[in-house]
């Protein structure tokens, strides 16, 4: 065989082997991308669904407390002492109010239930100024609706959620009946099941992390983080949620990578087989 003919035959042999191998590689990469995006979408969907559930659970907890305080303020406005029994039952019951506090229309402290908490951290008089700032936000609301606000850090370092129910006599606002809730109690209640299901979460007020973990330190699952807002009147929190490392690892399958590697090996053996077949002695 002449030299030009041999070169032409070698070129033909190369392309016969190369083209099927290349097509298998392209198809393997396409399948890898498809499988990888499917796994990514699954984890994003898990985070989004759980974040929505958490926001709804927090809002439901706030709304339940608001409805309870609204009834208590209505009882207080009617006069008598029966409302105190209900207030004591609230503090001792499943609503998780640390205390119920009365303020007059000028936001001056009027009394607390139970009264002995006034000497403990839950109602430390040093914190009255911080609560007054939050109460002014509630007092700026013109309507009769219950207003939920959160305090700045108190002397103890904790934050409280104030459920503020206005007390009206006719059209006159006589004062406020305020339920105190530890922010951590409220969020522990709302996020405990989420943590048990393998998620990590952080709750923010503006740029301030109020509760939980920062996604920047959240490990590999943090890239699937989803944000959702909790809005109740002047209260606006941002809940950020993502799969914790164990949960992310359980869903992050190695199948896409294994599929791609298998495709590369298949392409190599198909190309090699075709090349050797074309180069066999006539």
Written description of the protein model:
Helices cover 51% and strands 23% of the residues. The protein has 282 residues and is α+β, with helices and mostly antiparallel strands. The strands form two sheets. It has a five-stranded antiparallel β-sheet. Strands 7-6-9-8 form a four-stranded antiparallel β-sheet. It is rod-shaped, with a radius of gyration of 32 Å. The two termini are 12 Å apart.
Task: Give a quick rundown of the structure.
By secondary structure, the chain is α+β, with helices and mostly antiparallel strands. Helices cover 51% and strands 23% of the residues. Strand 4 and strand 5 form a beta hairpin.
SSE series: HHEEHEEEHEEEEHH
Q: Rounded to an integer, what's the Rg over CA atoms?
A: 32 Å
Broad structural category: alpha+beta
Number of helices: 6
Globally, the shape reads rod-shaped
Low-confidence stretches: none
The spatial strand order of the largest sheet comes to 2-1-5-4-3
Total strand count, please?
A: 9
Largest sheet: 5 strands, antiparallel
Distance between the termini: 12 Å
The proportion of residues in beta strands is 15-25%
Global mean pLDDT = 79
Into which percent range does the helicity of residues fall? 40-55%
Topology:
Layout: H1 3-78, H2 82-92, E1 99-104, E2 109-113, H3 128-139, E3 147-150, E4 160-169, E5 172-182, H4 183-196, E6 199-205, E7 208-212, E8 226-232, E9 235-243, H5 245-251, H6 255-278
Helix pairs in contact: 1-2, 1-4, 1-6
